[in-house]
User: Fold this.
Amino acid sequence: MVTEPMTYRPIWETLLEPAHRQELSPGHAGLPVRPDVLVVGGGIVGLSIALALSQRSAGQVLLVEQDELAGGASRANGGGLFAGQMRATFPNAFRTLGLESREMYAAWAEEDWADFDWCRGGSLAVPPDEFPLPLPEYAAAEQAAGRGAELITGNALRQLEPALADSVEAGLYYPEDATLNPLKLAVSLTRELTRRKVRLATGVRAVRLQPAAGRIDTVETTAGEIYPGQLILTTGWSATVLLSPLGIEVPLTPAKGQALASAPLPPLLGQNVMSGQLQRQLPSGHVIAGGTVEWVGPDREITTAATQAVLEIARQAIPALADVAFPHIWTGLRPHTPDAMPVIDRLPLWDNAYLAAGHFTKGVLLAPVTGRLLADWLVTDRPSAALNMFSLARFD
Ligand SMILES: Cc1cc2nc3c(=O)[nH]c(=O)nc-3n(C[C@H](O)[C@H](O)[C@H](O)COP(=O)(O)OP(=O)(O)OC[C@H]3O[C@@H](n4cnc5c(N)ncnc54)[C@H](O)[C@@H]3O)c2cc1C
Assistant:
């Protein structure tokens, strides 16, 4: 069996070629100080919005990121595009956007610039994943709604995923769901944005927003002042750091997730199995398991308790993982709002400032559609009706 040294960083970093890693740190020499649009935050949401803006010819776009590109939650995730598994407890329109966004990835994967291991391998949810109704009823309702769900039981379940524990009797399968490598996605987007002359700057932190005459006039950064035409904050859970001093309260909190990965294993999992957390085997053979959802503030510490919790769930669902070591451990902070849906809105008081944050467990999935909706708004000055459910005012 292959062994690998312990690492305390996302498995995606281990899998990335060093030269590609450098592309995520372009630096910040000679920043434009009056961009038409300034995007603050270079996670998957910021990168996707920047792409949509450039596709809509929104003028000069500058994106600033305090760390490397995709340095936050956007490299700590499982790379799941499980739109089917968005539960019926969410508004139908939100779930439909999830499907649309997944299919936007399918279209991206066909582009010359795309190299991010897109795979339409389906997703299989089994207890203790929770369903809004008893599973057979829920599956029937999903089928009746034309959502491509299949209730899988008995021999069919064993054939679909032979590695499942015998105790698992039924699962909800969405064959159209997909996966990708989120860090290769970030590299692909970085290349395409650079080709499109979007300016990407790393190691630049926005430290203060200065309003004047009903707009954000100046953004103070660690690399100097920027005077944006339009400003979009895509800073994940930490948007409150910039907005609270100006009296704008956004109910965003970090939801810590800890995840693990094995060394490369022979083929074991045929499915992306959700059993209260994800178990997924990568093309490299590594099996990912996780993540936890912990309400501990902006704390990224790796804990033994979380490791044990992840292993217990993984081994309950997939007994063959019982003797497998998981040498890769990492954490990330998901941006969470009280209804687990993002805020994608223009900020009150200012005409030129927008926020797109709070995608929680679905930020990779929802990034392309977030970009489309926001770029349409900026370019046409008319918000899509679909954005109503993402308003900041819903929390008043
Ligand atoms: C363990 C785990 C598993 C997950 N699995 C999945 C999954 O399978 N599928 C899925 O769709 N989602 C998944 N997610 C959720 C997903 O990763 C997030 O929803 C998504 O990455 C959020 O993207 P973002 O761009 O909003 O935030 P982030 O990726 O956090 O990006 C925000 C960026 O803003 C930067 N920033 C913050 N403040 C400033 C500032 N003042 N100036 C400059 N830059 C700043 C940060 O450095 C950061 O890079 C998972 C998350 C975790 C933790």
The first helix runs from residue 11 to 15. The chain has two domains: 11-75+183-251+339-395, 120-176+253-336. Residues 114 and 188 are 5 Å apart (CA to CA). The two ends are 55 Å apart (CA to CA).
